[in-house]
Amino acid sequence: MNRRLFMGQSAALIGAASTLTSFSAQASNLQKAKIIVVGAGYGGATAAKYLRTLSNNSADVTLIEPQAEFISCPISNLVVGGTQQMKAITTPYDGLVKKYGVKMVKDSVSKIDPQKKTVQLASGTVMSYDKLVLSPGIGLMLDKIDGLAEANKAGITLQAWKAGPETVALHKQLADMRDGGVFALTIPLAPYRCPPGPYERACQVANYMKKNKPKSKVVVFDANPGIASKGKLFKAVWDDQYKDLIEYQPASNVVGVDAKTKTLKFELRDDFKADVLNVLPPMRAGGLVIETGLANANNRWANVHFLNFESTAAKDIHILGDSIQTAPKMPKSGHMANQQGKVAAAAIICELSDYPVNPNPVVTNTCYSFVNDRDVIHVASVHQYDAAEKTFKAVPGSGGLSPAPNALEGVYAWGWAKNIWSDTVG
Amino acid sequence: MMLISRIKITIAVAAMSAVAPLTISAQSNSAEQIYTMSLAATCANCHGTNGVSAAGGDMPKINDLTHEQIKKSLMDYKSGAHQGTVMPQIAKGYTDEQINTIAAMLGKKN
């Protein structure tokens, strides 16, 4: 009897000891691991923050970003239209460092070696990683349109699709344009960053014209067969609010730009001359993804395992946001990149802790578009992971659109912006 | 002799259980905690990290609600009993179990 009791206690002790050993190993694996996040936009900054919080602040997280501050693409169309300034869409990175203990390095990554598991910075420093998170946003394929790279470099055409100096420059071109001028906006074939964004931009430019240059107009040349997002809602707004200010031309694929004469050249229609040329080029994954050989979907986007956002081409490299080949109905949006950052952060912390990865992640998307300086329309969706198909699927019956533009959602849009900026960068 | 061994073992186990859990809880979240935290974080884009809004009155507050209040609100949005703009569309995408987990995580704790 005594012996049985003794044996039982021995087994308990061995069990306790092995549990302790395994917990210690988990803790030390997690604490020893070097996690590098490249790109402090919606995906990368969120991942860095949640890698810290989900590890109870024990993970070693370095975030590499060349920009001094976070500048939001969502809301930036209001800066193009002149109803907001850059400071309204700019947030410092201080919170990530001071509140969440993320180590920030102000530099860019020039090379990744997936075999040696190192990244080389533009400054020359080489850093080793155990886990690498890439969130480099989009790459602009300027060379797909004749003359565009030179015209854009000279500032004659602008994209302003990566919010920053071009956002300000595009508003200046609009403000400097004569009354009676033409603002041409061209949209590439989907997929591209922010599906409703170009149509919101048309509204914001027309909103400016309505108040300041009423004889002018926006001509939208869309390479797609129709409006790619919120189509009926945007059409109704254009008819109701901007009848003579917005002209929409579907199935119009721009193939060339003549910078000297400010002329657009098309695949199937006549040349078109305008006062302002806002040419959005075809897009693909950010340069680092391409150069590292991770763009294994049509040489353009990166395939990932959706349970942890790990590249299908390289172990321990996780890719987020606009660079990935998305799941069906999953948009390339800032909101979605933030959500992906949380799924990836949770998966990485689990992997480094020898825990199974969450088998049922869920992500949402909410996208607000301002149709003037007050009224907003939204599209929303919820995507649950489907284990059988190994992808995220939009939940039937969930999600949807606004019934019509309204001011209440204009208030919520600003609430969303302030909260997602805070959730992303501190 | 056997008794002494037993006492030693008991002390050793007691000592470990007194120290080890503290060390572990200070260093690591459990898998379940990580799943729960990341699920609740799907709400943070609109409602703020941990449900604490940085947007003043521009977004309905949720961090002053209890577990039961958040759960009822989400279930009412899901069933259509409660109208709204975005939330009825979002709530329909979550399972009842996920809604309960989110409400427990974000509901105020007193």
| Chains forming the largest contact | A-B, 69 and 46 residues
The CATH topology of the largest domain in chain A turns out to be FAD/NAD(P)-binding domain
Strand content bin of chain B: under 5%
Number of domains of chain A: 2
- Structural class of the secondary structure composition of chain A? alpha/beta
The largest pleated sheet of chain A is described as:
5 strands, parallel
- Termini Cα gap of chain B: 51 Å
Number of DSSP helical runs of chain A: 11
Classify the fold: give the CATH topology of chain B.
Answer: Cytochrome Bc1 Complex, Chain D, domain 2
Provide mean pLDDT of chain B, rounded.
82
Helix content of chain B: 55-70%
What is the subunit organization of this protein?
A: heterodimer
Report on this model:
The complex is a heterodimer of chains A (426) and B (110). Chain A is α/β, with parallel strands linked by helices. Chain A folds into 2 domains: 204 residues, FAD/NAD(P)-binding domain (3-Layer(bba) Sandwich), CATH 3.50.50; 142 residues, FAD/NAD(P)-binding domain, CATH 3.50.50. Chain A is 33% helix and 25% strand. In chain A, the strands form 8 sheets. Chain A has a 5-stranded parallel β-sheet. In chain A, strands 11-18-12-13-14 form a 5-stranded parallel β-sheet. In chain A, strands 23, 24, 25 and 26 form a 4-stranded antiparallel β-sheet that branches. Chain A starts with a helix and ends with a helix. Chain B starts with a helix and ends with a helix. Chain B has 110 residues and is mainly alpha-helical. The N terminus of chain B is likely disordered.
Write a brief structural summary.
The complex is a heterodimer of chains A (about 425) and B (about 110). Chain A has a five-stranded parallel beta sheet with strand order 5-2-1-9-22. A five-stranded parallel beta sheet of chain A has the order 11-18-12-13-14. In chain A, strands 23, 24, 25 and 26 form a four-stranded antiparallel beta sheet that branches.
Which key phrases capture this entry?
heterodimer; A: 426 residues; alpha/beta; FAD/NAD(P)-binding domain; 2 domains; 5-stranded parallel beta sheet; 11 helices; 25% strand; disordered N terminus; B: 110 residues; mainly alpha; Cytochrome Bc1 Complex, Chain D, domain 2; 6 helices; 63% helix; globular
